[in-house]
Write a structure and sequence with these properties.
The protein has about 130 residues and is an alpha/beta fold. The chain has one domain. It contains two helices and eight strands; from the N terminus they run ββαββββαββ. The radius of gyration is 17 Å and the shape is globular.
Length: about 130
Amino acid sequence: MIINRASEDGKRLYDIVLSRQDFDDVCSGCPDGGFIIGRHADVYFHIFDGIGFSDAWRPMDDGYFLNVGVKAPVPEPNATRQEWDRLSQEFYDSLEKAINDSGKIPIEDEMVISGETKKINLGYVVMRVEPTQK
């Protein structure tokens, strides 16, 4: 995972490029602990395999987290190996598209101000999967 930081309109903007290995780990349910992790300076980015895509990065003790996921196609009970392979590729392609098309995802936290909970914007993250080698 490659993470670069910039500034846009006075806010932090992180650019995250998931390696093919990172993306494969997410597609397989993150078998080594349930998430993948990247770091920029002292900020960690935890990406969890989920059933949907979070609308914002949320704070953790050492950084931020996001759930990524898309609806997985379910093969028929009598599906052939080719059908399983086709549906697996469909899921893989859908998740990659969702990540690449996610745009600027806000980093948000909540604060209680005068007894009212307010969301505050801490910056943005743009995320994509590295292109396949041809």
